[in-house]
Amino acid sequence: MFLKRFIHIALLLATIQPASEAKVFEIFGSGKKAGPANRFGWTLAYQSEMNLNGVEGVVHVYGIEKELLDVLEELRSYYSMTGRTGEFFEGEPMAWGVGRDKKFAVRYFLQEGPSRATTLVYEIKQSLKEYLKTLGKPLEHQMNVIPPYPGSEATYFMHDIGSDTALEVSSSSTSPEAVTDFYHHSLSTSGWRTRLGDAGSMRIFEKGRELAMISASEGADGVTRITRLHKKLGTKKPSK
Is the full-model pTM beyond 0.85? Predict the structure, then answer.
């Protein structure tokens, strides 16, 4: 259910946003901390309301000057020491998991930052009741502005209400190379142009005041996870 590869929204858009929006996606900054962030001194970079698989929640993005595996160990130790339920998994170069207590559930997605010595952590907190609504719920593709890869299965959808950014993750048995080639052709012929050139399994496109990012990676289970992000550029800011 959890993602093998989660897009680094903050890192990506910070490099291509207009000046009026750049601070919304700042990687390292100062801000209020909570939970494991408070215990381990993580720095809050960004906060916003989210629509997560059709259920409302709040996301916090932290910029941490530690390697991903070190941050993952901090999360595991936090939930172990506090007696809460926590399950965490490692990927390449990702990690993900969920922590729960009697009232809340918190999803975590860890992404290696600009260097191996930095990590981005996406912390999405929901009431336990709202979290349980998302489990076992069959998903349909919800992002149509960037068409889903043919034959893929939707696994995750998130809409950042504050910045009007939508992200959908799907899975496929097709290779990552075939996926990125498909989107390079289909988007290019639909008026999108490549923004940052060839970036391996990731492609960034621009069309007027819209941005799109496509990322695909194959997990140890042989399944390719496809991430599609769409952003309308403007001046919206996330709620604080």
Answer: no
